[in-house]
Design goal:
The structure holds two protein chains of two kinds.
Chain A lengths: L1 H46 L4 H5 L6 E7 L6 H9 L6 E8 L5 H8 L2 E3 L13 E7 L7 E6 L4 H11 L4 E5 L4 E2 L3 H11 L4 E11 L4 E3 L2 E4 L6 H23 L10 E5 H7 L9 H16 L3 E13 L5 H21 L10 H16 L1 H18 L4 H29 L6 H17 L1 H17 L5 H6 L16
Parallel strand pairs in A: 1-2, 1-6, 2-5, 8-12
Antiparallel strand pairs in A: 3-4, 4-5, 6-11, 7-12, 8-11, 9-10
Helix pairs in contact in A: 1-7, 1-13, 7-13, 7-14, 9-10, 10-11, 10-15, 12-15, 13-14
Chain B lengths: L1 H23 L6 H11 L5 E7 L2 H6 L3 H4 L2 E3 L2 E3 L6 H13 L4 E7 L2 E3 L1 H13 L16 H7 L11 H4 L1 H55 L2 H6 L2 H4 L5 H4 L2 H17 L3 H12 L2 H8 L5 H13 L6 H5 L7 H14 L6 H4 L7 H15 L15 H14 L5 H7 L5 H14 L5 H8 L4 H14 L2 H13 L4 H14 L1 H8 L5 H11 L7
Antiparallel strand pairs in B: 1-3, 1-4, 2-3, 4-5
Helix pairs in contact in B: 1-6, 9-13, 13-14, 15-16, 16-18, 18-20, 21-23, 23-25, 24-25, 24-26, 25-27, 26-27, 27-28
Classes of the chains: A alpha/beta, B mainly alpha.
């Protein structure tokens, strides 16, 4: 009996891995084709766009830039100055000092001649207590507003910013990001273009600034980072942004807009109750909740994506920091998928329920688990003597070649569309990285992802009750006590 | 989750029980049947048999005594251990013939065992998969060849190729083939694309070198009349004939002329237009309007717009209701720019909603055209399309058309809430004091947005009645925080005493916060 079940399970797993391999290949090839089509259309459309008008047009929407800062004393003044010098007509910069323990606030007060105001702060979205709101006495800094509040995390800080924002579009960014001077006008365009559907959010590409030359808030010379992890992340970001998100954007299936550089409709963010501070994947969770709201209300909508290089950030090149980041991303993904499991395979939610959610569940969330299971399965086959070298090496070679193809194409897209890495040495380094990545970095990424699963099961984050309930409706978040002091 | 796990466990146990029961049924309970069963099996691992003779005199009767190696014990004489039950059976048949008192003993791992225990042992072996059952007695009597002849040959696997018979290998191969075909296709496509792009870029560079000098000479060395008198053949001195028939060369020269046209003014614009026409490039632009690809048509519209190709207007007019956003936008922009009579009728009849992007582009052109010839914006108010009507209201505000305030006032009776918001903003911007009754009516609205903008307009245009309305609303209604802030701000601007009366000595902390906010000079516009 047990013997029979054992071999039955082995057979089931064998077929499962075979089908999974086929799905991976089919899906990634589809994504490559979709992203190529989207990129082609974007480049064509861009030829007819005149961004000069947006800066001065009274019809262009106003943008509230929200930049949370925690212990950023060393660079906060430079970062704020960079944000204030963006080329756009109607915008405000709201820096939220999230209970920094260093001199972040003092530096801002001193450099921008800030004074505490009697601003009537109304917490439409619940946040940790706000200690004060500052504005400058100098007219040159009239666009700047600084919120000083008790520490509550990034999502809580952003919620405080949302409560204060007065313009139509929210630009949620990491304060240490480098933004191109025309970034706002380019990101605002999708909000202005759509006629039949409401554009609820627009995501942008995040470039890697490590080892690059930066002048006047823009990357002037691109160079590939020296470290293996740095180089890997360049390719990974190409794959994620130029391939993955472009493809999902084509079928309106985007489920994630990076928290480091995302634009959202202010009224809708307020309607759904802002960011959910109890998850570590607050950026993804907000996008899913906004989409759910639109689907539940039956309002046609779209999420835009701009592939132009407009924002750059320094990525971690240290294994400890990167492992923590990946662990956090994995937990964020699991939490979001758990919170919104009502969406899973639900026709009411269209592309989100039938395509994006299952994709994220199988390939992003369960990816590490499936890969480890595959490894264990192979070991069992080796032990029992049922191991077939031809299947194993055929599948291994196939997956390796697929990885090469996807990575090479994402680099090629970048070369065809933007051609930022002009030095041939850089290209050679990237190609070597593509070849080595599956053996050198990928196992680590899988391990960190798996640790994310383990930490989630252990309850790291401390909000287990919520995850069991999930949101029955998108608006449920508004009725939830999220900031217990 | 726990329920799911329990369910799986139960399913597993249930299945196990089912299989176990099915296998137990294979063991006959009856001793005679069990013996037959053991004969068919020939041998069972770990199971042996021995014959026991109880009386010594019976032992003496046997001829085969030495062959079976009987050993004396307290309970009788035991034969050697058999592994084939068939042998035990034939021996016991002989004993029965000779009337010998005997017994067959089951030995599990050499230990004497009862019939039931032996049955249980065999059942366990089968259940664990350690023993494969034989169901039919092998009949060695029949000739195998003769048996084979009874049945026509049919292969066990019905595939011509062993390769296809292995499903997994077959599927893996299919996947690999699929992957390679698609990936090779994509790689070839990208290589071709990249090569074509590189070739095109090289050729463009080459053509640009050939174009810049002659174009500069024509522009700076020739007068407008001289260019006008030049025949097509005269241009061959500047641009060789073989190049002028090259499609890409034409594209480059069009691009170059258009980019110069954007930067230049006055007579130079005229010269460029003349060169464009003399080289028959206008025909290229007109021809592109017939293309199927949207980006080619849009490119043609941009060229027509830039080079003022009036003869293309009838064709352009047909494109204002195109399905494609870009074609539609550029067709309208071209018509606005080139039309002699700017009556906006074509815009009024647009069925597609107008996006902010389109509004921004049209506004830029209308603002420019408005300085030359007055535009009849009012036709837009008659449109069935709400986005066109809203654009009309915005135009009045942005163009500063005070003469149209009356039209807006009439509109308020039937206006939607979105239109009302735009009208209120326009009244505010244009300082329409005579429309204060509209603003006051809007302060009584149930729509939060309308009240907010009415209060905002009231700050600059309000009167004593506005003050009363606001004061009553603040007491009677609980508006949104944003609207309450605006109402208090307007009240403060219109009547500071009333503001103090309403806000001072109030227990409501929100009112106190709002008062402090409004009175803070650093927050005058926030």
């Amino acid at each position: 009996m047990y013997n029979f079940l054992f071999y039955f399970l082995l057979e089931v797993f064998g077929w499962m891995f075979l089908i999974l391999s086929f799905c991976v290949i089919a899906i990634y090839i589809t994504l490559m084709i979709l992203s190529a089509l989207e990129m082609r259309d974007y480049i064509r459309k861009n030829r007819f766009a005149d961004y000069g008008d947006i800066i001065t047009s009274p019809i262009a929407p106003g943008v509230s830039i929200l930049a949370p800062a925690f212990n950023e004393g060393k660079s906060i003044v430079q970062n704020a100055q960079s944000l204030l010098s963006l080329h756009y007509g109607k915008f405000e910069v709201i820096i939220i000092n999230d209970g920094s323990k260093d001199d972040t606030l003092e530096k801002l007060i001193e450099s921008f001649e800030l004074k505490k105001t009697n601003y009537a702060y109304y917490p439409e979205i619940e946040t940790k207590p706000v200690r004060g709101i500052y504005r400058s006495t100098n007219m040159s800094y009239r666009r700047l507003m600084v919120i000083d509040k008790e520490n509550g995390g990034k999502a809580d800080a952003l919620n405080a910013g949302i409560n204060v924002a007065s313009l139509d579009v929210l630009a949620c960014i990491d304060v240490d990001c480098i933004l191109s001077s025309d970034s706002i006008s380019r990101m605002v365009r999708p909000f202005m273009e759509e006629t039949n559907r409401k554009v609820i959010a627009v995501g942008g590409v995040i470039g890697i600034a490590n080892n690059c030359d930066v002048q006047d808030g823009t990357v002037t010379h691109y160079r590939v980072p020296e470290s293996t992890l740095g180089k890997f992340q360049v390719i990974e970001y190409f794959r994620a942004f130029l391939m993955g998100r472009m493809a999902w954007s084509r079928i309106n299936g985007l489920m994630l807009i990076s928290g480091a550089f995302g634009f959202f409709k202010t009224d809708l963010v307020r309607k759904v109750g802002g960011y959910f501070p109890k998850t570590v994947g607050e950026d993804m969770e907000l996008v899913v909740r906004m989409r759910r709201y639109m689907d539940e209300e039956g309002i046609p909508y779209k999420l835009g994506f701009v592939p132009d290089p407009l924002c750059w950030t320094e990525v971690p090149e240290n294994e400890d920091v990167l492992s923590r980041q990946r662990n956090r991303w994995m937990r964020g993904t699991i939490e979001t998928l758990q919170l919104h499991r009502q969406v899973r395979l639900n026709r009411k939610y269209g592309v989100l329920g039938l395509a994006s959610y299952p994709f994220w569940s199988i390939f992003e969330k369960s990816g590490p688990v499936l890969e480890i299971t595959g490894l264990v399965y192979t070991m069992i086959l080796l032990i029992t003597g049922d191991f077939s070298a031809i299947y194993f090496f055929a599948l291994l070679a196939l997956m390796y070649l697929l990885s090469l193809l996807v990575s090479a194409f994402s680099v090629l897209y970048e070369q065809v569309a933007f051609n930022n890495y002009k030095d041939k040495k850089d290209l050679r380094k990237l190609i070597w990285m593509i070849i080595l990545e599956p053996f050198v970095v990928h196992p680590k990424i899988i391990w960190w992802g798996l640790k994310g699963h383990i930490d989630f099961i252990k309850g790291k984050g401390g909000w287990g009750g919520m995850i069991r309930t999930g949101f029955k409706k998108a608006e449920d978040k508004k009725n939830l006590q999220t900031t217990t002091t | 989750m726990i329920k799911k796990l329990l369910f799986l466990c139960l399913l597993f146990i249930g299945l196990g029980g089912f299989f176990a029961k099915a296998q137990d049924d294979l063991i006959p309970k009856d001793s005679v049947d069990f013996w037959k069963f053991l004969i068919i099996q020939k041998s069972v691992p770990g199971l042996g048999y021995s014959l026991k003779i109880n009386k010594e005199e019976d032992l003496n009767k046997l001829d085969s005594l030495n062959g079976l190696n009987y050993t004396k014990t307290d309970s009788g004489y035991f034969s050697r251990v058999f592994e084939d039950f068939g042998l035990v059976k034939s021996q016991s048949d002989q004993f029965e013939k000779d009337s010998i008192d005997y017994a067959a003993v089951f030995l599990v791992f050499s230990n004497p065992t009862s019939l039931e225990a032996t049955q249980e042992y065999v059942a366990n072996l089968i259940r664990n998969g350690d023993f494969q059952l034989v169901f039919e007695e092998r009949d060695f009597a029949e000739d195998l060849v003769a048996l084979a002849q009874k049945f026509p040959y049919s292969p066990l696997l019905k595939f011509k190729l062993l390769f296809i018979s292995d499903f997994k290998l077959f599927i893996v191969t299919l996947v690999i083939v699929f992957f390679f075909i698609v990936s090779i296709g994509m790689i070839l496509f990208m290589i071709i694309l990249k090569l074509r792009k590189t070739n095109r870029e090289n050729q463009l560079k080459e053509f640009e070198m050939l174009i810049v000098d002659p174009l500069t000479k024509l522009l700076f060395e020739k007068e407008l009349d001289e260019i006008n008198e030049m025949s097509k053949t005269d241009f061959y001195a500047y641009f060789p004939k073989e190049y002028l028939s090259n499609q890409m060369f034409k594209e480059v020269i069009i691009e170059r002329i258009i980019s110069l046209n954007k930067k230049m003014k006055g007579e130079f614009k005229g010269k460029l237009k003349l060169i464009y026409q003399k080289l028959d490039l206008d025909k290229v632009s007109l021809g592109m309007l017939e293309y199927a690809k949207w980006h080619k048509i849009t490119e043609a519209l941009v060229q027509i717009n830039e080079m003022d190709l009036m003869e293309a207007l009838p064709k352009v007019e047909k494109l204002v209701n195109s399905d494609n956003f870009h074609i539609r936008s550029h067709a309208v922009a071209t018509l606005l720019n080139l039309s002699q009579k700017v009556d906006l009728m074509f815009l009024k009849d647009q069925t597609y909603p107008l996006s902010d992007w389109q509004q921004m582009n049209y506004l830029r052109i209308i603002k420019f055209v408005n300085t030359i010839k007055p535009i009849q914006v009012e036709v837009l108010f008659e449109s069935e399309n709400p986005s066109i009507r809203i654009f009309g209201i915005k135009l009045i505000r942005i163009l500063g058309r005070v003469d149209m305030i009356g039209n807006l006032s009439k509109m308020t009776e039937t206006a939607t809430e979105e239109e009302l918001v735009e009208i209120l903003e326009t009244f505010d911007t244009l300082g329409a004091h005579m429309e204060i009754h509209v603003i006051n009516n809007c302060i009584l609205s149930e729509n939060d947005q309308v009240v907010f903008y009415a209060a905002k307009a009231g700050a600059t245009l309000g009167n004593a009645h506005t003050v009363d309305l606001i004061a009553n609303r603040l007491v009677e209604k609980s508006d949104s925080f944003r609207t309450r802030k605006q109402l208090l701000r307007t009240l403060h601007v219109l009547d500071a005493l009333r503001f103090d009366h309403i806000t001072l000595d109030k227990v409501d902390s929100t009112i106190q916060d709002l008062r402090a906010h409004i009175l803070d000079p650093m927050l005058s516009h926030v």
